[in-house]
Amino acid sequence: MIEIGKPAPLFSLYNTEKQLVSLESLRGKNVLIHFFPMAFTGVCTAQLCNARDNMEIYTKLHCTVLGISVDSLFTLGVYKKQENYSFDLLSDFNKTTIQDYGLYYPDFVFGMKGVSNRAAVLIDKEGIVRYFEVTPTIGDQPNYNAITDALAKLA
Description:
seven-stranded mixed beta sheet
């Protein structure tokens, strides 16, 4: 489990362009990670579309946005293109990062096992967790105002 004020667990995951993206490579930048259960589902799409539609705010506040799910990078590639996301979607197909972040959700729907809880994590330029929210239920959205407020304090 991660804690506010502590270093974020490091990860290296593939994006939809088949490039390895590591948290360490983003050192020196604020990073907002949207963890989501599964591509092409309504609540997940709303979460990522909120990030897409507010990229101007994140860019102005010098923040790199990432989305992480257990979907394959191929599925995420189709999803990214369909929804016109301008930020990286990373595949945690092996579920290591969601476990390192304490976000493993064992029972999703229709008997599917092992997806990510819905969460938002803000990591500062030094790799320290500054905001962490796991939604009360998998059907809830993160508190976008609280995320923006926390990010503004880092700018």
